[in-house]
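Before the break, one more example. Copy the sequence into your notebook; we will annotate it together after we see the structure.
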Amino acid sequence: MTDIQLRNSPDLRPPAGHYSHVAMHGGLAYISGQLPVDEDGDSLAGKPFDVQARQTLDNLDRCLAAAGTARTRLVSISVYVTDLATWPAFDTIYAAWLGQHRPARIVVGASALHYDSAIEINAVAALPE
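Here is what the structure looks like once it is written out:
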């Protein structure tokens, strides 16, 4: 794969800004930051943290599917949270979502995220060979 391919998930609202959900190049899929926003584009920022985290992971799944790959092919994940005290809850949700696969990961405390969200996740996944 020499050309960059850009895709949006048909199961998510099209990006509101100047970006694509997924950019693919060199055997990798780069997933743009996913927020707790439902398929209609409504923010779940007022919902409990666990609801926001699950929606964000669901959105990540939808982007992986649009790229033709899956969570078991994740290489690296970056997680941004506005309250590091929520990290243990996220780690439990994340472990259940991901199972035995353990890609590289970073957790960053952020003072604020778009739509007053409590979490944002971006990722890199290997494409099928």
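Strands lie at 5-7, 22-25, 28-34, 74-81, 104-109, 119-126. The helical segments are 49-67, 87-98. Try to locate both features in your own notes.
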